[in-house]
Design goal:
Layout lengths: L10 E9 L4 E3 H8 L3 H7 L4 E3 L7 H13 L9 E4 L12 H9 L5 E4 L6 H15 L5 E8 L21 E9 L3 E11 L7 E2 L22 E2 L2 H26 L8 E4 L4 H11 L19 H11 L8 E8 L3 E11 L3
Parallel strand pairs: 4-5, 4-6, 11-12
Antiparallel strand pairs: 1-7, 2-3, 6-7, 8-13, 9-10, 12-13
Helix pairs in contact: 1-2, 3-4, 6-7
Amino acid sequence: MGDSNAALPRIGIDRMGYYAPPTVQTSAYIAEASGIPIEVIEKKFGIKQRHKAGPTEQVSDLGVKACLNALGDFDPAKLDLVVYCGSEYKDYYLFNVAACVAKRIGAVNANAFEIHNLCSAGVWSLKILKSMMQVDPELRNVLLFTASKETDVVDLTNQRTRFMFNFGDGAAAALLKRDADKNIILETKMITDGGFAADVAVYGVGSKNWDGLDTLDRTQRSLDVADPASMKERLDPISMGNFVSVVEDAAAKSGYAGKIDFLAPIFMKSSILDGILQKLGLGPEQTYVLEDFGHCQSADAYIALIEGEKSGRLKPGDLAVMFGAGTGYTWAATAVKWGPVKG
């Protein structure tokens, strides 16, 4: 069992790191600001605290810190490519944060580009970069990073966006290596339903509203939901099934049907994660809940892998499946064979 493309070079996650700003906003803070009881915030929303970047700490700053934490003693001059897969809310409108971070970390020989697919981009990007690295021998060391400061654009007084009240700031990075000897990236599965494409957006910013930017108020530059009741009515019947489907299919495509050992999830409501674990026949000890981080966009699954390994829940030889979902709506999962390659 294993990667169906066994004849191609193995691509693996050589090292990872994340950065969470030191300032936190507790469940009590979120409850007071939103008017939602703290019991609901902690039990239903599943969050104890979220990290909050400072006003002068930008998305590029978060990315630089996560990248340097991931690289450790690895020489950034040896990087061939730096790729960003995080929030589209960045330091500036229409701004290449991948190139900015590559420059700042000293990746002097690397090209840089960005992948955007909202909160599923971190999972899906592994497929893209794995494929590129397998066919291009010049890509031996690739740094993938993600960052989010979306607490800026979530209004805790807007009840239409209450499912976003768990958003937290943070960043993560992973060094991918060609001809890897550990943590091999296997197969990926995605499901897309474009019927949800316009349900969530910052509706006041974009080509539709260019002439109105001079009168833009804060509510128009925050994330919003056009019709929460309609979105919930359409999303609830399919979301858990799609999560389970992409996780199972990523494992099966990798040759490990029914043999999942660890789930590295996007942050989600406790009831949804519990339901997914139950349908997959897994227990709570086979995942890592990000209740002390909040939802850090595409960084979630990487933080879960790092903390899962630290806690002893993710062990060498395990089949780990990273999964997430992005408004739009896309559900995605990627399987990783954790630990050293045997044989």
